[in-house]
Each structure stands twice: as structure tokens, then as C-alpha cells.
Amino acid sequence: MSASPANLAARFNRDCNCQLLDVPALRSQIDSTTGLALSAQFFSPLAVFLDPEQTTAMRDLVAVISNAVGLPGYQQHVLEIAPDIARHDPRTSGVFLGFDFHLSADGPQLIEINTNAGGAFLNLAAHAHQRACCPAPRCSQDPRTNAALEADIQAMFLDEWRRARGARPLRSMAIVDEVPEQQFLYPEFLLAREFLQARGIRVSICDPSELQIRGGALHARGEEVELIYNRLTDFYFENPRNQVVRAAYLRDLAVVTPHPRAHALWADKSNLALLSDPAFLEKLSLPPTDIETLVRGIPRAVRVTEPQARWWQDRKQWFFKPRRGFGSRGTYRGDKLTRRAFGDVIAGDYIAQRFAPPGERGGGTGETFKYDVRCYVYGARVQLMAARLFQGQTTNFRTPGGGFAPVYVVGTG
């Protein structure tokens, strides 16, 4: 009797040393496109193996969460406690939502949602350099061609534009982040610029200080900017250096994506407490099957409040993250929490989520990586999946042999 896909995926993640991503060729292509020497930690040559039930469960959870987030009762509750700017409705959804999962025996567990999830253009480039796996037991990579993936991403940006501006053609964009040349993912900005300019859109990469409002329009370096691809982690444009972006957004001088409303609806960590709370979900009149999907797929999350003694005693069961945090900054595994860090958690605005360990990936060499799976999402649909291999407490790109990794689905043989 042949092994099940789940057993095969577990075995391959433990033992398979096949290098299914041609990292040297990929780095050469990206270095040539960007003119930079790409960090070795961006990509891992190893693949992560999933079984069909895991990929289906992730897609189903994305669809159910998208339905819940669209409900008036959910939006009213979330926006009441969000900054005022989140109540401004720009009519757009926000590009590149990122749903991050840990894979466990209980199925995929959603750890967080991000509105400016990085890495999509890096993983798009990597797709063309994935190698075919051995034919049995039919380990398959994403079957879509690079052209199909590229068309999907182009359509996403154009959909954002049309939601706000109708049939008028999109001619110019700016990719905006603080001191972009110093950002770790700056090579991705260059890839995005190359991708969009090849499709007839003028693109600049700029710091918010380079933006100006003149004559009722937004400009960067003398060129009008019609759309901002927003990579700022100042999610509500509260920093004084981002006031031009804030004004352009509120005055609808440019389409900004993703935007503060999207962050409030999707990425505020306190939303995990709502989406994992059966009592709140019942108030939304969600179908029982949707509630079951949410509770099964999202580890229970709660706001950290007094008393301190309870949290310290139970800390090993939880993972602590700042409500408006990003990029694993200020996060703590409860079993690694020091008294000093615990003080920061109690004093800060923190969410505690039941600890769901990441998956583990061996390589046949005795070295073990942890991994998660990121789903890039638009319009309730998963566009792209990629794994991230790392060592340590949280996802990072500092582990030799770690980084983004392709996802292969194990068939039935």
C-alpha cells in the first residue's frame, strides 16, 4: 500500500536533500536586473513539501476570513477602535495581503496577516528557476507559467486603479518607503519597477520626503504620481515625515495601496482575537461551518491585560506580539520570555496567541530549519505560495541555507 500524501510530505520535509531551486541562476538573473549583488539569505535551494489537504485548508481559511472581514458588523467593530484615518474608504482592497501559516498535525495555523507583505516579486522571479521534482510520487510545483503569474500580478494593480479611477489608463507610480536604498528588500523594489515599467507604467522608487503636492496633483522628482505602491510600516501615516502621503491619500490625489483602512481591517493583530473568538463570530451570523473553519485554523488570541501573575504563570502556552507590530519586531515566545521582556509586554499594547510551532525541514545533512508558509492574497484568492526557512525564534533572512523556498505539493503516487 502506498504512503499517503501527508506521510510522504512529512518524510520529504524530514529527509529530502534535493535542491529544487537553482539559486545561482536566480541570483545571477536578479543581480543582472537590479545591478546589485543579491544577499545569499534571500533564497534557500531546498523546497518545502505540502500535501493537498494542507493547501486546500489554507485556501479555504483565506476565503472564509475574507468573507468575515467584508461583513458590516465586523468592519464596524474594527473601525470603531482604529485611528480616524482608517474610516476613510478609498474604494480599493490593497495589494499583496500576506497570510502566514505554521503547519502542524492539526492542519495549517494562521499566525498573522500583513498588508504590505514583502517578497512577492522575489518569489515571482524564483518561479522560473524551480526544477522539476522526481516524477513519483508526483511532487508538483505551481503549474502556472511565469507569464500567467505575471499577468495575475499586473491585473491586481490595474484592478486597484480601476476601482478608484475607472477606465482611465494608469501611467505613473511610485514605490514608497523610508530611505528605500537602505531597506533589506530594496532589490525587490527594483524588480517591481522593472516589472511595471515593462508594462508601460513609469515607476519611481522614493522616500516620502521626495513627494510633493503641486497644482492639485502628487509629484515625485518632477513627475506626476498617480498610484503609490505603499511599503511604509507607518501604517496610519502618523509620522510627520509621511504627511504628504497622508494628505494625498485623504484628498484622493493618488491611489494608495495598501492603505490604512486595509491595515485596520486585516492586519491589526487584535483582529486575530476577534477571528478566533466563537462568541464574536456567532454575533456576525456566520455559518457554523465558517466558524468551525476559523476556530480550527487560527490559534486562539487575546489581548494582554492584567493580572500580570496569570500571564507569567501561563507564558509558555503563548506567543506575544505587539498589536501594531511588523516583521517579528518586539515578538516573544513565551517559553523564552525574560522578566525584563515581560515588563515590556505588560506595559505595551500586546496580543497573546496560543503558541503553534512552525514546521521543521531537514535536509539530509543533520541540519534542521523551521519554516512557515506565506500566501500572497488578493480578492480572497491565493495568488502565490512560498515557504520561508529559518532558525531561531522568528522568521528571518539571516540563516545560511535559509530564506524563501519553493512549495511543492505531494500527490498520491
**Overall number of structural domains:** 2
Mean pLDDT: 91
Using the CA coordinates, give the radius of gyration.
21 Å
* Residue share in β-strands: 15-25%
Count of helical segments?
14
Shape: globular
Question: Residue ranges: pLDDT <50 for 5 or more in a row?
Answer: none
What would you call the structural class? alpha+beta
The biggest beta sheet is recorded as: 6 strands, antiparallel
Measured as a percent range, the helix fraction is 25-40%
Distance between the termini: 11 Å
Number of strands: 20
Features:
globular, 4-stranded parallel beta sheet, 6-stranded antiparallel beta sheet, alpha+beta, 413 residues, 20 strands
Task: Provide a descriptive summary of the structure in words.
This protein has helices at 5-15, 23-34, 52-69, 72-80, 120-127, 146-165, 186-197, 243-250, 260-267, 270-275, 278-283, 288-297, 308-313, 339-347; strands spanning 48-50, 97-104, 107-114, 139-140, 172-176, 202-206, 211-214, 217-220, 223-224, 227-230, 255-257, 301-303, 318-322, 332-333, 350-354, 359-361, 369-378, 381-390, 403-405, 407-410. The protein is 35% helix and 23% strand. By secondary structure, the protein is an alpha+beta fold. The strands form five sheets. Strands 2, 3, 16, 17, 18 and 19 form a six-stranded antiparallel β-sheet that branches. It has a four-stranded parallel β-sheet with strand order 6-5-10-11, with helices on both faces. It is built from 14 helices and 20 strands. The termini are close together. It folds into two domains: 5-283 and 357-410, no CATH class; 300-354, no CATH class.
